[in-house]
Design a protein that fits this description.
HATPase_C_sf; elongated; GAF-like_dom_sf; two-component regulatory system; Beta-Lactamase; Sensor_HK_TwoCompSys; alpha+beta; kinase; 551 residues; 4 domains; 5-stranded antiparallel beta sheet; 6-stranded antiparallel beta sheet; 50% helix
């Protein structure tokens, strides 16, 4: 062969060897791509999947630095996962990018971008201080179906000045597989979250099968809702239809002391949640209502606690600042809130059933006292009165008359007890009066004698109760300060449409029967109610004050 032919043959052989090398390299890169696809799909925890995607992409195209930016609803980067940058450099750089400049190109126009020098692009903002130098750049969007989940950014091609077309094709292929892996991870996270919601709902259902304590059930609801939703604060507010207010019944989580805080329904987002919307999402719980103290959170979801057209209150789930609420939580949270409302219904039904049982038992006791005990006492009194007429000795007749008087007093006391038994369980006016007298006994040095007559609890209206307690408090206070008494008798009667309070002591008495000082207020209270107030000497010594109003 001529020298020219041998040169030509050498060139052909070298070209053949180069193409064989390219085929081998392509096979290796394809194998590496398949390994990377299998690797990024090996786990179902979303954060781990994203980290593996960045690491695999950087290795496949030979990039020194890699990052994956997750795009939020406002079309900015809400999360930025990096590779090749140490923790120390991270701290020196400071805040991570939000998706402007060259990084924003893929957000505005989600197509692959390959640049030989990122710093020379007209949209380049430059790098912040302490940022490692970067020149060659390759970026491609990551899609989940028709939605762009985020972008894959690669920089600083190792061993070359810029990324090649093959690198771009490898990155696009990996991004396609990454979209599937991310979707699987998100579906797994959603399924796991729903499983936790269902488990919490089942736990509440098991609680409903037994004896329900309202406070304990609501505390369990709040605790489980905070754990499953990974929230900062969970509040349970109960509604008062009479006042139109919501009262914080349960607080769970890292929050200021909001226990028993009261907020108005009007002109707040709570009214909107209770209305047609069914739920409301606010950016910050502190802006939802005028709280008694500072409250600062991230997004908060408010959903009503309602069952059988009965509003019990609202359930508030607030996430930490910077976090985002999960859309898939909403239907599960509403179901969970329905279970919580059912717990309130069950607790109220149990309370009502127990109250009915108590009332039935009290009614039976009252009936027995009236029909049996009082009749026997009447009969005994009549026999004693007949016997007194036959007694020949005066002292014997006197003793019998005293016994009859004692029986009359006992009958009055039993009637008073019957009135107490037949009043609602939650009526506590008698208890308040006794507590007030017990408190005054410490100042007086003795315990005043108390006599109650008539249905005090049921007959005295709520608006008159404060006046009644004020009369007792003021008169006993005057007795302690001025009377120098050793005994005092208080009689409270609710009969014939009239409430009468009489306070009599055995003190030094008064020279002037015109009210002065605090007694003037008592006269004004009686006048405003259409009643009367009098001060008179007591027999044999002391003062008698009578305050009466119509009821």
């Amino acid at each position: 062969m001529s020298p020219l032919s041998r040169v030509r043959l050498d060139e052909l052989l070298q070209e053949l060897l180069d193409r064989v090398g390219e085929v081998v390299a392509s096979r290796e890169r394809l194998r590496s791509l398949l390994d990377a696809v299998v690797g990024i799909g090996s786990g179902l925890e979303l954060r781990g999947v994203l980290t593996r995607i960045v690491e695999a992409a950087s290795a496949l195209v030979g990039a020194r630095y890699g990052a994956l930016g997750v795009i939020g609803p406002d079309r900015t980067l809400v999360e930025f996962i990096t590779h090749g940058v140490s923790t120390e450099v991270h701290a020196q750089i400071g805040d991570l990018p939000r998706g402007r400049g060259v990084l924003g190109l893929l957000i505005e126009d989600p197509r692959p971008v390959r640049l030989p020098d990122i710093t020379k692009h007209p949209n380049s903002y430059g790098f912040p201080p302490n940022h490692p130098p970067m020149h060659s750049f390759l970026g491609t969007p990551i899609r989940i179906r028709d939605q762009v989940f985020g972008n894959l950014y690669l920089a600083e091609k190792q061993g070359a000045t810029q990324f090649t077309q093959d690198d771009e094709e490898i990155a696009v292929a990996l991004a396609a597989a990454a979209g599937v892996a991310i979707e699987n991870a998100r579906l797994y996270a959603t399924a796991h979250r729903r499983e936790r919601w269902l488990a919490a709902t089942a736990e509440i259902t098991n609680v409903l099968l037994g004896q329900v304590n309202r406070t304990s059930a609501l505390q369990l609801v709040a605790r489980r809702a905070r754990e499953v939703a990974e929230a900062q604060i969970v509040l349970v507010l109960l509604a008062d239809e009479d006042t139109g207010h919501l009262t914080v019944e349960v607080v769970d989580g890292d929050a200021p002391d909001l226990s028993s805080a009261v907020v108005s329904l009007s002109d707040t987002v709570f009214a909107q949640a209770i209305g047609d919307a069914g739920h409301v999402l606010v950016d910050d719980l502190g802006k939802a209502a005028p709280w008694p103290g500072p409250v600062s959170t991230g997004p908060a979801l408010i959903t009503p606690l309602a069952a059988a057209d009965t509003l019990h209150g609202v359930l508030v789930v607030a996430h930490p600042a910077g976090a985002s609420s999960q859309p898939e939580d909403l239907p599960m949270l509403r179901t969970f809130a329905g279970q919580a409302a059912l717990a309130l219904e069950r607790a109220r039904a149990q309370d009502e059933r127990e109250q009915i049982l108590v009332l039935e038992d009290r009614e039976r006791i009252a009936r027995d006292l009236h029909d049996v005990v009082i009749q026997r006492l009447f009969a005994t009194g009549l026999h004693l009165q007949t016997t007194a007429q036959l007694a020949t000795r005066p002292e014997l007749g006197q003793r019998i008359s005293t016994a009859v008087d004692d029986l009359d007093t006992t009958i009055r006391d039993i009637r008073t007890a019957i009135f107490e038994l037949r009043t609602p369980v939650n009526a506590t006016l008698r208890t308040e009066i006794r507590d007030l007298i017990a408190e005054a006994a410490q100042t007086l040095g003795f315990r005043p004698d108390l006599r109650l007559s008539g249905p005090i609890d049921s007959a005295v209206p709520d608006q008159i109760r404060p006046d009644l307690l004020a009369v007792i408090r003021e008169t006993l206070s005057n007795t302690a300060r001025h009377a120098r008494a050793t005994t005092a008798h208080i009689t409270i009667e609710a009969t014939g449409g009239q409430l009468t309070v009489t306070v009599a002591d055995n003190g030094v008495g008064v020279a002037d029967t015109q009210p002065r000082g605090g007694l003037v207020n008592l006269r004004e209270r009686a006048t405003l109610r259409g009643g009367a107030f009098t001060i008179a000497p007591n027999t044999p010594t002391g003062t008698a004050i009578v305050w009466s109003v119509p009821i």
